[in-house]
Amino acid sequence: METTGIVRRRTAERVRDALGRLVTERDVWVSTAHPDHGPHQVPLWFLWDGRAVWVCTSASSVTARNVGKEPRVRLALPDTFDVVLLQGEADCFPDQEVTGDAADAFADKFGWDPREEADAFLYIRVTPRTVRAWRGEPELRGRVIMRDGMWLE
Protein backbone atom coordinates (compact mmCIF):
# COMPACT_ATOMS: atom_id res chain seq x y z
CA MET A 1 0.00 0.00 0.00
CA GLU A 2 1.33 3.43 -0.96
CA THR A 3 1.54 5.63 2.13
CA THR A 4 3.96 8.31 0.94
CA GLY A 5 2.50 11.77 1.35
CA ILE A 6 -0.50 10.77 3.47
CA VAL A 7 -1.02 13.27 6.25
CA ARG A 8 -2.84 11.79 9.23
CA ARG A 9 -6.06 13.72 9.81
CA ARG A 10 -7.39 14.57 13.24
CA THR A 11 -10.70 13.01 14.26
CA ALA A 12 -12.63 16.23 13.65
CA GLU A 13 -11.26 16.36 10.09
CA ARG A 14 -12.26 12.76 9.47
CA VAL A 15 -15.77 13.45 10.76
CA ARG A 16 -16.06 16.54 8.53
CA ASP A 17 -14.79 14.64 5.48
CA ALA A 18 -17.02 11.61 6.11
CA LEU A 19 -20.11 13.81 6.53
CA GLY A 20 -19.24 15.63 3.32
CA ARG A 21 -19.06 12.36 1.43
CA LEU A 22 -22.31 11.12 2.94
CA VAL A 23 -24.03 14.20 1.52
CA THR A 24 -22.45 14.08 -1.94
CA GLU A 25 -21.92 10.39 -2.78
CA ARG A 26 -24.54 8.44 -4.72
CA ASP A 27 -23.76 4.77 -4.04
CA VAL A 28 -23.17 2.70 -0.94
CA TRP A 29 -22.38 -1.00 -0.52
CA VAL A 30 -25.03 -2.56 1.74
CA SER A 31 -24.01 -5.73 3.59
CA THR A 32 -26.68 -7.85 5.23
CA ALA A 33 -26.79 -11.40 6.49
CA HIS A 34 -29.46 -14.04 6.83
CA PRO A 35 -29.18 -16.38 9.85
CA ASP A 36 -29.50 -19.46 7.58
CA HIS A 37 -28.06 -18.26 4.27
CA GLY A 38 -25.12 -16.07 5.32
CA PRO A 39 -23.86 -12.73 4.00
CA HIS A 40 -25.13 -10.70 1.06
CA GLN A 41 -23.70 -7.47 -0.37
CA VAL A 42 -25.18 -5.13 -2.97
CA PRO A 43 -24.57 -1.54 -4.14
CA LEU A 44 -27.57 0.77 -3.79
CA TRP A 45 -28.29 4.46 -4.17
CA PHE A 46 -28.47 6.20 -0.81
CA LEU A 47 -29.56 9.39 0.86
CA TRP A 48 -28.02 10.83 4.04
CA ASP A 49 -30.61 12.82 6.01
CA GLY A 50 -28.16 14.18 8.59
CA ARG A 51 -28.74 11.33 11.04
CA ALA A 52 -29.28 8.19 9.00
CA VAL A 53 -28.73 6.56 5.63
CA TRP A 54 -31.79 5.71 3.52
CA VAL A 55 -31.71 3.12 0.75
CA CYS A 56 -34.53 1.65 -1.28
CA THR A 57 -34.80 -1.82 -2.73
CA SER A 58 -37.41 -4.17 -4.10
CA ALA A 59 -39.60 -5.48 -1.29
CA SER A 60 -38.83 -9.02 -2.52
CA SER A 61 -35.04 -8.57 -2.70
CA VAL A 62 -32.51 -10.58 -0.72
CA THR A 63 -31.56 -7.37 1.11
CA ALA A 64 -35.18 -6.79 2.17
CA ARG A 65 -35.56 -10.39 3.34
CA ASN A 66 -32.28 -10.28 5.24
CA VAL A 67 -32.98 -7.08 7.18
CA GLY A 68 -36.37 -8.51 8.10
CA LYS A 69 -34.59 -11.38 9.85
CA GLU A 70 -31.40 -9.61 10.98
CA PRO A 71 -31.52 -5.80 11.18
CA ARG A 72 -27.79 -5.30 11.81
CA VAL A 73 -26.12 -4.01 8.63
CA ARG A 74 -22.85 -2.57 7.42
CA LEU A 75 -22.51 0.12 4.80
CA ALA A 76 -19.39 1.13 2.88
CA LEU A 77 -18.78 4.02 0.55
CA PRO A 78 -17.18 2.73 -2.66
CA ASP A 79 -13.69 4.28 -2.36
CA THR A 80 -11.08 1.78 -1.11
CA PHE A 81 -8.49 4.46 -0.35
CA ASP A 82 -10.74 6.99 1.42
CA VAL A 83 -12.66 4.44 3.48
CA VAL A 84 -15.93 5.22 5.27
CA LEU A 85 -17.69 2.26 6.94
CA LEU A 86 -20.94 2.54 8.88
CA GLN A 87 -22.54 -0.05 11.11
CA GLY A 88 -26.05 0.19 12.49
CA GLU A 89 -29.51 -1.28 12.62
CA ALA A 90 -32.09 -1.12 9.88
CA ASP A 91 -35.66 0.10 10.22
CA CYS A 92 -37.88 -0.85 7.29
CA PHE A 93 -40.73 1.12 5.73
CA PRO A 94 -42.93 -0.18 2.91
CA ASP A 95 -43.03 2.34 0.06
CA GLN A 96 -46.59 3.42 0.86
CA GLU A 97 -45.81 3.90 4.59
CA VAL A 98 -42.49 5.75 4.47
CA THR A 99 -42.44 9.32 5.78
CA GLY A 100 -42.98 11.85 3.03
CA ASP A 101 -39.85 13.84 3.89
CA ALA A 102 -37.52 10.88 3.42
CA ALA A 103 -39.22 9.60 0.27
CA ASP A 104 -39.41 13.08 -1.26
CA ALA A 105 -35.72 13.75 -0.53
CA PHE A 106 -34.79 10.38 -2.05
CA ALA A 107 -36.86 11.15 -5.17
CA ASP A 108 -35.35 14.63 -5.44
CA LYS A 109 -31.78 13.30 -5.24
CA PHE A 110 -32.23 10.56 -7.84
CA GLY A 111 -35.09 11.71 -10.06
CA TRP A 112 -36.84 8.42 -9.37
CA ASP A 113 -39.70 7.78 -6.96
CA PRO A 114 -40.13 4.13 -5.94
CA ARG A 115 -43.60 4.95 -4.60
CA GLU A 116 -44.75 5.38 -8.20
CA GLU A 117 -43.56 1.95 -9.36
CA ALA A 118 -45.97 -0.94 -9.96
CA ASP A 119 -43.85 -3.31 -7.86
CA ALA A 120 -43.52 -2.90 -4.10
CA PHE A 121 -40.37 -1.29 -2.71
CA LEU A 122 -38.93 -1.11 0.78
CA TYR A 123 -37.19 1.94 2.21
CA ILE A 124 -34.50 0.98 4.69
CA ARG A 125 -33.20 3.51 7.21
CA VAL A 126 -29.86 2.70 8.82
CA THR A 127 -28.98 4.80 11.83
CA PRO A 128 -25.25 4.36 12.39
CA ARG A 129 -23.97 3.29 15.79
CA THR A 130 -20.32 3.06 14.66
CA VAL A 131 -18.49 4.86 11.85
CA ARG A 132 -14.90 4.21 10.82
CA ALA A 133 -12.91 6.38 8.40
CA TRP A 134 -9.32 6.21 7.20
CA ARG A 135 -7.03 7.00 4.30
CA GLY A 136 -4.23 4.51 4.08
CA GLU A 137 -2.22 2.79 6.77
CA PRO A 138 -1.19 5.98 8.64
CA GLU A 139 -4.84 6.52 9.60
CA LEU A 140 -5.70 3.02 10.78
CA ARG A 141 -5.08 4.05 14.36
CA GLY A 142 -8.00 6.22 15.48
CA ARG A 143 -10.24 5.18 12.60
CA VAL A 144 -13.39 5.05 14.77
CA ILE A 145 -15.09 8.44 14.40
CA MET A 146 -18.52 7.49 15.81
CA ARG A 147 -19.09 5.24 18.78
CA ASP A 148 -22.48 4.31 20.28
CA GLY A 149 -24.18 6.72 17.89
CA MET A 150 -22.10 9.73 18.97
CA TRP A 151 -19.59 11.51 16.72
CA LEU A 152 -16.15 11.73 18.32
CA GLU A 153 -14.07 14.90 18.39
TrEMBL record:
Keywords: Oxidoreductase. Coiled coil: none annotated. It comes from the Bacteria. It comes from Streptomyces variabilis. This is Pyridoxamine 5'-phosphate oxidase N-terminal domain-containing protein. Residues 28-134 form the Pyridoxamine 5'-phosphate oxidase N-terminal domain.
